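REVIEWER CHECKLIST
Item 1: Sequence provided? yes
Item 2: Single chain? yes
Item 3: Sequence as submitted:
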Amino acid sequence: MAAKGKKSQKQPNRKELVSVKSKKKDDILSESQKKPNRKEFVSVKSKKKDDILSESDMEDEELEQQSVDSDEGGDSGSEISLDGDDTLARDFLDGSDDEVKGSDSDAELDSDSDSDDHDPQTESTAIDAANKRIQQEGQDELQLNIKEQPDEFRLPTQEELEEEARGPPDLTGLQQRIKEIVRILSNFSALRQEGATRKQYIEQLKLDLGSYYGYNEFLISSFVEMFPPVELMELIEAFEKPRPITLRTNTLKTRRRDLAGVLLNRGINLDPLSKWSKVGLVVYDHQVPYGATPEYMAGHYMVQSASSFLPVMALAPQEKERIVDMAASPGGKTTYIAALMKNTGIIYANEMKEKRLSKLTSNLQRLGVTNTVVCSYDGRELPKVLGHNTADRVLLDAPCSGTGVISKDESVKTSKTAVDVQNFSRLQKELILAAIDMVDANSKTGGYVVYSTCSMMVIENEDVIDYALKKRDVKLVPCGLDFGRPGFVRFRERRFHPSLEKTRRFYPHVHNMDGFFVAKLKKMSNSKGVSAASEVEQEEEVEEEEVSAMEEVEIPLQRQKKELLKKKSTTKSNDLKRKFQDKPATFEKRKKYKPPPREEISKAREEKREALREAKKKATKQTKSSSASKKGRDGV
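Item 4: Structure as written out by the authors:
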């Protein structure tokens, strides 16, 4: 019993075991805190494993040393029998070992999570290195492109153009070449290539624009003649974009403010057109079709381009007047005139093509127009139908080539030629003379003719007005439009009347509307003249007679010139000087050449033909007689 009591006294109690355990735990935690950081752990993974193993061995040695020390104070640990308290301490110690293992695993997880994050310093250095590499690659590529491309632009040679024609079109190359040519032409004296003329650059620009944008040679040449290179590019780019959608309020049924409010509620985003129009609205976007709303069906507005407002505004119709619209379909201008007249007076809406009459009549009925008479005649014959000097005002929106509305109809780029434009110009001249003949110069409120086209060709606009000024007693007056460019007074070799500055031109790239031309004429007297068609025919006949007369006179003139040259070569210079000195200086007014009448020309031609026939007969007789004499000699 005494021995057993000694053994129980030498065995450590529970408090001592707890203190030993807490001390051991602190040592393990301190050792875990002393573990290498993330970089060292990642770089020396194998070494860490060895350190962990050595540390675990050291922990085992310490435990063994403690057990040896406890055995030195009494019997060995194998002889000690543990009671209930000892089993509790053992379980506690086992739990501490599990906690140590858990702390080690937590430390490893922390180290792994640290390894997932990146060091900011290494990241910044890597990013800087990557940026430097990208910049260097960009510089190298730029230098390579600079070496491949010449420093200054040069026109392509004929061989290069032929090679381009064989393959598919290089649109990027064409665009770049167009920009370079426009840049050089804007400052030609400083940027031009040595030995290259302006004509060469312009010809190349025509070819490139035609192939890139799809224009024919005539149309692109006409635009090049009308505009400088920079403005030409702005015009062509404007033709590639659609014009804004515009609506005209029908003041016979509603007001613009009320109509705008209703359409906004229906999902159509719009604003007033501009200060110059009190009835126009411009549509930005729409949730519903703007051509199928109840308001449209009821005739509260009409879809109409902004440029179509201009001729009616220039005409300025008054109430209770007699007005003629010579080319009325589809009725946009006619209904606008009726709205300005408040359905008073009378309007003659003429449309030559019967297929287009249905659109005209339906729009007149939809918009509530009641003062209009629809007719279908050739505009050149209208003075015979309606009478001469019977209308107060006439609107002539003449048929034209449509070169101002290419954004609506791209077929104009290739379909219109110089012959088409010439034919349109001839028709327009006949129509404007017929319009002037219908207007009454003695009208108290009117006496005006408004001429408009959706063309940009000078031959269809200024040339027609200049022709009317020469053939009728009319003068140009201001159009009443505050904007727009003045018409051409001179264009290349053509010279027009100075008053053509009062006409107005509208361009897509300047006014954001279709290309348009407007001129307003005031009739000064009702002097009677021949009909428009017969006068144009007479003018053409006169030109033909002049040509034929020149042909008749050309041969004798050449003979006279040859004889004069022979005489001059035989006479001496001194004699010629004396003759010129003896002759008094006479200044006679040069007479205007008048071609001989047609009858004389036909008689001269017949006489020549008869003379030729007689000469042929004589020649045949001589040949026959000579052949007969030869046969007689051979027979003898």
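Item 5: Key structural point noted by reviewer: The longest strand covers residues 516-523.
Item 6: Recommendation: ____
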